[in-house]
Structures are given as C-alpha cells and as structure tokens.
Amino acid sequence: MNASPPTHGSTINAVVERHMREGNRPNRLLREKSPYLLQHAFNPVDWFPWGEEAFEKARREDKPIFLSVGYSTCYWCHVMEREIFENEKIAARMNELLVNIKVDREERPDVDHVYMMALQAMTGGGGWPMSVFMTPDRKPFFAATYLPPVAVRGRASFPDILERIEEVWKNERHVILEGSEKVYHVLAQAGTSTRESVEAGEEALHRAYHALQDKFDDVHGGFGSAPKFPRPVALNFLFRYFSRTGVASAREMALTTLQKMAEGGMYDQLGGGFHRYSTDERWHVPHFEKMLYDQAQLAISYLEAYQVTHDPSYKRVAEEILEYVTRDLTHPDGGFFSAEDAESLRSLQSTEKAEGAFYVWTRQEIRSILNADEAAAFECRFGIKEEGNVDIDPRQEFTGQNILTAARSVLQVAESIQKTEDDVQHLLERSRQKLFAQRLARPRPLLDDKVLLSWNGLMISAFARAYQVLGKPEYAASARTAAQFVMRELLSNEDGRVLRRYRDGEAKIEAQLSDYSFLVQGLLDLYEASFDIQWLQRAQELTDR
Questions:
Q1: DSSP string covering 104-117
Q2: Rg, Å, the chain Cα set
Q3: Pick from 205, 302, 318: which is nearest to 255 by CA?
Q4: Does position 479 have pLDDT exceeding 60, yes or no?
Q5: What is d(CA 441, CA 444) in angstroms, rounded to the nearest whole number?
Q6: pLDDT by residue (tens digit) across 40-64?
C-alpha cells in the first residue's frame, strides 16, 4: 500500500464514554488504565485489580479468590465476558461467593507466569482467558481456561463449578487446602531446575536444528500441525545455522515458512501486518488480532530473508509490516501501541461483533467496488468464491465470506485472464487501493493503546534494522522518536525507576527483565544504525542497572 494517513481504531476511552452516557454503573476497574481491565469496568461483577485490597477482603470475609487473567485482544476472553461476566445472575453469585480479581497479562506477566504454571500443572495445557480459583493466601486449587455458561460436551459450566466450590469450601475445606498445598509445592519446585546443564556449543546448535527439522511441514511451511504460530526466533536461528554450517535445508525451511505465511490469510493482504496465528495448517484462517511484538519480530525475519536471497518479495512484506505499524500502531508522540482486536462490529448499523469482520469480504462486495477487469484479476489472485473460501469453519463465523489469501501467482493470473503480468500488477494494485479505502469505512477493531517498554524495544530494533538494510531515513526516524518517547515517559521519573507501561498520561508497573533486555537490544540496534553515542551509553546504563 502507498503511505496513507493514520487509521487508528477506536480506543477503550470511547467505549467507557459510551457506557457513561448510557448511565451504566461502573465497578472499581474504572480507576485503572489497562484497556483490558477497562473493558470489564461495567460488568456487574465486583472486580478488583490485583492488589492487597482484594487479598485483605478475602481474608476478612473468609472467601476464595477467583482470578481471571487475559488481555484486551483475546477473542475467547471477549466470549467469556459476554457469556459469564455480563450475566447478572452469574455475576451476583460470583459477588456472593468469591473475591473476584482481573489481571491484564500484558501488564503483569509475572502474575500470569505463576498461575499459568499452576494451570499447566493441573490440566496439562494453558491459554487465555485463564480462570483460577485460589485460597485467600493466593494458593490455587482449581484452574481452567474458558468456562461456558452451560455444560457442553462433558465440560462443566461456570455456574456448576461455582456451586461445587461453595459446597466444598463450606463442608470439606480440608480437600481444597490439601490440594492447594500440593499445587504450591509443585510451583515451588518448578523454580528449581533439576535438569543437568549442557554446555553451549556445536552439539546444542545441531540438536536445535534437528528438533526443528523433525517438526517441519514441508508442504505448508511452519512447524507442527494446526494451530500454527509464527516462530520468528526459530526462523532467525535457521538463517544463522545455515550461515554457520552451510546446511541448505536450514535456509529453505525458513524461506518456505516465510513465503507460505505471507501468501496466507494470516497476512493482511490489503493493509500489511500479521495476525496472531493460524487455526489451520495452511495459514489460511487466522485469529485476527494483530500484536505489536509479532510485527517487530517478523519484520526482522523478512528483512533477513531479503538479505539472504535479495528476493524483493521478502522486502515488500517487511516494508508493508512497517507501514502498518507506522500507520496504525504509532503513538502521536512516537511510541508504539500494543495491539488491535480480532473482532469488530459487523457493520456501522450493527450492534453485534464478529471476529474478522473488518478483514473478510463477500464476492458481491468486491464486485460492487472494482470494475470488471480489476475484479477478474483480484478474484483469481486471492481465491475469491461466491460461497466463500473458508473450507473449515466449525462456528460458521465466515459462511459466505472470503479471507484474502494469495491463491495464485501473478503469472497464473495473467494466463487465466489473458493479460500481461505488468497489466495484472497494475490491476491488482488499483484493486488493493480501492478495497483498502473501502475497508476504512468499516467499524474498526478496538485499539489497545497502551505502550509497553519491552514490545517497544522490539519495534525499535525492527525499524533500526530496516534502516540498516534498506536505507530509508524514515525508518531511522521512527526508531529514534520511539526511543526518545520511552526514555521520556518510562525512564525519566523522579525516583529513577524503570517502568513497564505507559497509557493515557500514566506510567506505572515496575519493569521486568524482558523490558530491560528488549530495550537494550533496541538501543544497540539504534546505535548501530545511527552511531549516535547516546544510545550506546543508555544501553550500558540499563544493562548495569
């Protein structure tokens, strides 16, 4: 896409203002800044943020704690909110029986990490929303992910679980306390490694390569089966392994994966940027949220693929990722926002939200916007069908809809519609511009407009590296202004603390190791791009700290 003005989605502040105009009653989460917590500020649940106020209430009233952990762009978090936390009857029982705590995992990865270990220990799996029941001293005794409002396919309902917990808490509390102690000891032991350390060296590199090779999908790229997540760290490792050893298959695994991902529906073919992950093995049907950290790491992967091959298709994807971040995820003062949601209103007239509504198309819509030649080229290129091109859709979310995926090459399109490749390229570019402009008129997904230090460090690296590889001065400027923003807002407070999150004028939450390490890497990359000594000095100061 050509450069275009900012198209930021609506923010949580607009949602809060609408609730206030409608006279809806808030809970105490209204005092928070996290978009995820504010999404729940008008639930009938008596939510607390994580903190001593909630723990003291649980001890004083002798109640179990219900801990709900998620993030603002989590699709199943939205589903559970609609089905459980907005249900007046269920909320009343929660308020009667429990002390209820909401945590944004992106603000508090430390809290999320501890209870995710508990969930995995209890169930063998993990994910969000994370639902944990625990004693007043914060020891978990039951954990799950999404819980439905009614029992389904052998899965207990949230109300059923509430009633069972009430019964056991009153009459068989020793069962809960014994169980929570066992989980506590498992978590305590998890902090102490029992594995023998292995010296870092050639053998470790070869084992890592063979582990990836064993899981590689040589048809669709990626590793393992569905769902498939982008794994930029693995791809970057494979490029370095190839450089070190000359094993060509390492290079080809990375390139095949990057090519297939960019051709699939997981990539936004109109606006650039990657969705979170693919629900199928072909990268066709994604969960549609877009996360800043994915854009940062994948931009670097595509830049490295371009460096390795000089293939302009990898350069194009990297540039489109960076254009998307510049256009849609950049704070007016230079930092980077966190994410865009997976779901949005179906139309300007609708009150119903649907996942992917902003991104999918019917053939009728496309033909109403494009002329005949454009539509013929576009439909052939992106696999558009009258009945929709989503073959596997268990929720019927995308019935009749098309997820844009590069189904045919430009050469194949040219042969199919009997035009030259140059003509097809011009038709496709005009079509993309028209459809992108039309898409801007749709209701946008919610923008998570908090600025996280660690993710900004990753994005600073991406822009700095892009300047080094492609030489465009605007990339160096983006890296520099973002670094200045986080230095000013998150590192320049009166008591000298380094803080993790900035939003709506407030900086808060002590920085963690990932914040330091990713920011230091970003500053080193910015120094190498600019040779401005201040960035090297700040990187050293943060490392010493």
A1: ETTT-HHHHHHHHH
A2: 25
A3: 302
A4: yes
A5: 8
A6: 999 999 999 999 999 999 999 999 9
